[in-house]
Design goal:
The chain has five helices and eleven strands; from the N terminus they run E-E-H-E-E-H-E-H-H-E-E-E-E-H-E-E. By secondary structure, the protein is of the alpha+beta class. Strand 7 and strand 8 form a beta hairpin.
Length: 213
Amino acid sequence: MRGGFVLLCAAAVVAGCNYIIPANYILQGPPKEPAAYALQPRKTIVIVDDKQNRMSRVALRVEIGDAAGTELLENDVVPEVISTRDSVALARRLDTASKPVSIQRIGESLGAEQVIYVEVDEFVLAGGRKEGGPEAVVLVKVIDAANGTRLWPSVGVQAVQSDLLDINPSLLETSAGRREIEDKLAAQIGEDVAKLFYEHPRRELGGRLGVKK
């Protein structure tokens, strides 16, 4: 057989051939997205900031951070992750109207060695670019907690877009339904942020948008 992909017919249960799938996809799985940055195996905290009050609840910041931390631990990216809840509580205690507490101080005070800083830039439950569904954009950078120096990216921030599909529009009609969508979107953001730091199957929707200056 000459060059090109060998095409296989995957029809184990349903009669007939509905999908033509490249053989290398079946053998090797979907294409992989490499890590954008290799985190050091150090004690880490995910700090989530919502300066523009895009989200309706502070608890969503914790959900984003915890989801990201869980992904990092489950994929053996870092050995330990400090709870985002602790960073939210400390920021509330130390922030003043004239001088917000620095990211570096929060991380260092909680015993972290490196900080994944996530700033919420967009968080909408309807009207997103992908089929008008729930969508979020966050801006990410990594900081050394010991001295506050930037580790990644070298300039600007890494923008990450997250989307939810197949959300029943009727959920938007009740407060409980909106909270459900918010929780799912927050969890998706956390997962997408964590995937910046380890190789993973490429998603058709969501993922990196590039560096924002």
